What we know:
Layout: E1 3-9, E2 14-21, H1 25-33, H2 35-38, E3 49-54, E4 61-67, E5 73-84, E6 88-96, E7 109-118, E8 121-129, H3 133-141, H4 144-160
Amino acid sequence: MPVTDVRHDLDALTLTITADFAAPVERIWQVYADPRQMEKVWGPPTYPATVVEHDLRPGGRVTYFMTGPEGDKHAGYWLVTAVEAPTSLSFDDGFADLDFTPNPDLPVTKNVYTFTAHDGGTRATYVSSFESAEQLQQLLDMGVVEGATGAISQIDELVAS
């Protein structure tokens, strides 16, 4: 399992997940830069994603929905704020209705993904920042750690294929 560390900090209002992959930085970057690859790893294995819109430039938008085992669909979006290919990506991530209208009842997180060379592979650091401890706790209660860990764990198989 590539996830090596998960930390949430209610004082700093962050959730940080660290993962190590046996693939170069450029290969891990491609997972997020290519919507067909991203949909194989965005979302837990039982909730595969479909990427609808994928504009990975500052000011761009990524929209997606995940389909649950019962056929239920859950949509979300990214508002891309910074891109430094192949080493970092920043975006606001929110929940949405199925027409991709943002859902104001659920938190929007600010995310910074960084990819650095490490031990012949890549260390990925995924940092999500929240506006309040309540928002962080809300997503923890929704299973964000388990979901993100399951999603990230799919990257090893994808990059090995």
